[in-house]
Amino acid sequence: SDLLRPGAVGCEQRAVVSLLLAVPAGIMGAVFGRISEEQPAYALMRGAAAGVSEIRKYEPMIVATTSYDVNTGMTNSGGEFGRLARFIGVFSTPANEDESSHAPTAISMTAPVLLSNPAPRSNEDKASHATRERVMMFTMPASRFKSVDMVPKPKDARVTIKELPSQTMAVRTFNWSLTQSVVTENLEALLADLETDPEYTPVLRDEEPRWLVAGYNAPFTLPWLKTNDVLVEVQERDQNSLESVSLSSAPSLGGTSS
Question: pTM for this one?
Answer without folding.
Answer: 0.80
